[in-house]
Amino acid sequence: MEKMIAFNARCYAIIKSQNNRVLVMKERWHGVDLQKFPGGGLELGEGLLECISREIEEEFRYSQTLEYVHCFTPTDCFSSRFKPREQLLLNYFTNTEAAQEDQWELIANDENLLGIQWLELTKENAYWFTLDSDKNAFLSLLSS
């Protein structure tokens, strides 16, 4: 691992539905197609839950207002796939009440947001995710 020179704090939402599924998305980031949870980078001066709310507002045309609680933070040090000298600090949150699946739609004017779907909460579906951190957060949710 290269010597780290910066931190990048990120927050992701694991949105559970009434049908025992979670909302996932396909997104293009730096020319790479990712299958991931909604969310993104924490901005300076922003709290973690504020970050979740802002990211949802930026990514979705329609969504529900939900309450979120922390559910997973990886404890190992690892670097960004896109910036190898940047250490990621990831925080995953889940909703406290079930989401309605028909209340969610991506914004239409961002060509990097490729689509959403509702993924069944089964161990086999952990392999759907591109990034190991999302796989681990998904598996952690299943074991809780």
Structural notes for this entry:
There is one protein chain. The chain has 144 residues and is α+β, with helices and mostly antiparallel strands. The protein has one domain (6-143): Nucleoside Triphosphate Pyrophosphohydrolase (Alpha-Beta Complex). 17% of the residues lie in helices and 38% in strands. The chain is built from two helices and nine strands. It has helices at 48-59, 132-143; strands at 6-14, 21-29, 32-36, 39-41, 60-62, 68-72, 86-95, 105-106, 113-120. The strands form three sheets. The protein has a four-stranded mixed sheet with strand order 4-1-7-6, sandwiched between helices. A three-stranded antiparallel sheet has the order 3-2-9, with no helix packed on it. It has a two-stranded antiparallel sheet with strand order 5-8. A hairpin with a 2-residue loop joins strand 2 and strand 3. The chain is globular and about 45 Å long.
Share of helical residues = 10-25%
Secondary structure tally, helices? 2
Oligomer: single chain
3D shape: globular
* SS strand fraction: 35-45%
Mean pLDDT: 92
Q: Give start-end ranges of low-pLDDT stretches.
A: none
Structural class: alpha+beta
CATH class membership:
Alpha Beta
- Assign the CATH architecture: Alpha-Beta Complex
Distance between the termini: 31 Å
The CATH topology corresponds to: Nucleoside Triphosphate Pyrophosphohydrolase
User: What's the story with the biggest beta sheet?
Assistant: 4 strands, mixed
Order of H and E elements = EEEEHEEEEEH
Spatial strand sequence of the major β-sheet: 4-1-7-6
Q: Considering the protein shown, what is the CATH homologous superfamily?
A: Nucleoside Triphosphate Pyrophosphohydrolase
Secondary structure: number of strands: 9
Cα-atom Rg, whole angstroms? 15 Å
Count of all domains: 1
